[in-house]
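Posting for a labmate who doesn't have an account.
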Amino acid sequence: MTKEKENAAIISQEEIAHGIYSMWIRTKAAETAEPGQFISMYTNDGSKLLPRPISICEIDKEKGALRVVYRVTGENTGTELFSQMGEGDTIPVIGPLGNGFPLEKALEKRAFLIGGGIGVPPILELAKQIGCEKKQIIVGYRNDETFLKTEFEQNGEVYISTEDGSAGTKGNVMDAIRENGLEADIIYACGPTPMLRAIKNYAEENGIECYISLEERMACGVGACLGCVTRTSMHWADAEKAGLPVQTCTSGPVFWAEDIDLKAGA
């Protein structure tokens, strides 16, 4: 069923780190949204026709509200226009879109919930909803502006890495896992492709079930274009499509790691 665009009311917005904004909106999408899904947000600037896909950070079904946390990517961009909006404004959105993380796979297991960069926000609702034996949240930042850290600490064991070493482990999320001697039976992750590639390799080497959410550039968000393709692996269930490109927005953004090919240049 095709999703319809709606004008969502902005409940609140604030800058929670340099260039990182948190926005709560009231939207019908909250009724069915799941951790790992995203919404497409449109500007009110008629010259910018394509929406911006923004992952869902928190879901409040009782209030019919969603929280998105996003980074402003430059001047006169869609995200900069979003950042100038506030309570009482309305913003056109479509959602929820894509598939979510398979929460049922984590029951009675030790889980890694891993986020890096702007892949950190969707890990929060995942941490709130997932039921597992042991919940280990590993999040990577550029510096000590560790946005959402307090919320994460309310929902599991938190381990932080920073590129400059200003907080937690110096390095990346894999360095934090090694430094703290962490172990898991299942992995959920969202972040840039190099990070996901390292996580996938780690999971394969250690025989760990792994699900990853890709951060592809999505133009339409509903499968009408080919702006967000990723290549499948030979493990893909449909043998006729194994090794071929699929659209991230409709087949993902969450994939079983073995289903997709993250090799450099693939």
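Reply:
Got it, the structure tokens are right above this. The longest strand covers residues 6-17.
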